[in-house]
């Protein structure tokens, strides 16, 4: 299917047919009117129109950019009873899985256990309604434990609410600004580094409850925490260790029995019943935090001042980045399992709204949970209604049996989180990345060590910056200039053409430029251009291998042109790409060089050079 689409206000302008292939879907063709003399005409092209094809998946792109919740799309398609059956089973199953995790993650984050349930209920519901994924399950996750615990310890719960609200607004703005695709540029070593670091910190935070050391206030710092554990190692409580080990074994071994009922739930039920029946003297949620409420709290907001906004802006950025990364990674995993495609920008908006609602109703930050999402899909969940059912199930648990949850042993919750930490650690990926190039290893280790020993905010910032600098360094080495006058006959551009017609006048030298000319490559380009020691009458710069250029690249070319002109040398540019030429024209560089000194290929460039030689009377 070809659609004639007039496009106006297009400064590039050539009569160009751009066909966007859809990978099996209908192809869409856009026609763009040509402006005269916008680009030098390439050899072999007619004066009328230039046709190019780009292999892009327009179907994905249109869905990716569309700001419509997936729930609305499902309703438009028609929601069937068969889909409801699958969603009911998926929602109930993942609700059972989320119950102990929400409580355990809240306690590990330094807040009350019920606040994890508030988050799973409120954020899970809102994100399901407004999100861009069909099967995403959202709620509290292990990725937030470190940052939430740090904020609560430093600023209190009100500070966490403010940071979560700011992060929610950021996520909504990111979605509206179509920034969903940009997050894929976060380097993989950074993701593995901070995820593994978080896993180690989560494990470390559970040692006190798993061993029954009864340390009243465990230090937040990683090193101080382990120093304190060593000091209290003689306080190990055998009853607590037995309950913890038994719970851990049930969680690990239960999948061999069945996957239909999660091992975490069986461990909690068995341990709670055993502790209450045999009156085992171990800490429980009730002995540590008191009873559990039986309903959602009233919505409320803390007082937000300018100083608190400034203090919490940096942690809010970390929350927003983590929420975006985790949710989009989870959405990608879900797409791979179901064969569907999520809307990343709409997902960011849904995540932002969910975090705002969570903060208002006494919750903590939320994001897409990969394990719970996979459980939902495997259990039959196919639409956002599964996540809604999961939230409703948790609400009913809170309303009717929440008080019984206060009897859960702390050692059992510690066992649940130890398994979570192990699954998060990605130790196999970590080990595999240690065989990568040294730059990637440096990024991985820097992010991991900073997460563990400093803080997550610093780790992400430094990891991304370090990866960016290493990337720029690699790219800068790609920019160089080669002297090619004597090797033109071997150039593949001229295969099938009569090479006898190539006439390189005396006083003309040809140089090939390789790589993008951007700010990181300017110094390398300067070094390479020094090969032009003797100044010929005309220099031809072939730029067919230059895909892009920025202001720094334009500046270095301007310096080269001015220096050459002062020495009586003319520079002719050959095979400049349309995107590069557009930048040159807008910056005024084309006028500086003279439009007539741009040629579509080397043959035309040699003709221009020959005219300059003849006009100066430099012919033999």
Average pLDDT, all residues: 83
Strand order across the biggest sheet? 6-7-8-9-10
**Structural class determined from secondary elements:** alpha/beta
Number of helices: 24
Share in helix:
55-70%
Unreliable stretches covering 5 or more consecutive residues: 1-39, 41-64
Percentage of residues in strands: 5-15%
How far apart are the first and last residues' alpha carbons, in Å?
A: 59 Å
Overall shape: it is elongated
Which sheet architecture does the biggest sheet show? 5 strands, mixed
Q: What's a quick, concise take on this entry?
A:
This protein is an alpha/beta fold and 620 residues long. The protein is 58% helix and 8% strand. It has a 5-stranded mixed sheet, sandwiched between helices. The chain has a 3-stranded mixed sheet with strand order 2-1-3, with helices on one face.
List the helices and strands and how they pair.
Layout: E1 16-22, E2 25-32, E3 50-54, H1 58-65, H2 70-77, H3 81-108, H4 113-130, E4 138-139, H5 145-176, H6 188-211, H7 222-231, H8 238-253, H9 263-278, H10 285-289, H11 306-338, H12 344-360, E5 367-368, H13 370-378, H14 385-400, H15 402-405, H16 410-425, H17 427-433, H18 438-453, H19 456-476, E6 480-483, E7 508-514, H20 522-529, E8 538-545, H21 551-566, E9 570-574, H22 578-587, H23 589-593, E10 598-599, H24 602-616
